[in-house]
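Annex B. Sample input.
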Amino acid sequence: MLVDKSLNSDIVVFLTQDARLASPDSISNLIKAFDDTEVGMAYGRQLPHLNAKPLEIHARIFNYSQVSEVLSISDSKRLGFKVFFCSNSFAAYRKSALELVGGFPSDSIMGEDAIVAAKMLITGYKKAYVSEATVYHSHSYTLSEEYKRYFDTRVFHEQNKWLIEKFGKPTGEGIKFLKSELNFVIKNDFKSILKSISSLGVKWLGYKSGKYYKKMSTGTLRKLSMFKSYWK
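Annex B, continued. Sample output.
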């Protein structure tokens, strides 16, 4: 991993290939979060691409607010599972903190960033969300891709049950998202209501079926998962 080769770096920054900086100050704004020596990781605000569709726009509005915040383990009582939400699509880590929690796990199907964030919070570090650090990053998933993404999400939760034991079930957040999306579509683009209902339905189906992944053959898992190369 490139992190291991950044020998003289105190902070390491992650930016996926399909994320585009929305401001020339995005990275510097993100790095400022580490002026607080207790911050172990920080992530920026993801904006929908200019040609994004309504459901893509809502997903970014729901997950990435205009208000920055710094969270600690004490906030888990208020936020539950949401407290360690983050995204490596645009994020930065204090390298010493990353090394302290053992770096990114290699055995989880997804969510390596969330696992690290959770471990940092438990260790005593804080997690920062920097709304002034912006990138354009959104996806237009087909219904099949939505199913696969949420199938993998459930596999991730099944593989990392300690997160649920420590922070609680993610069910409440899912219900909030459902209500929020339907309200958004009704108010802003009613013609997308069928797409929204279909999308929410396949997400639910994908998440429910992912619970039984251990009973499935490798061939079936490759068909149902977005990360086919994971299954060997």
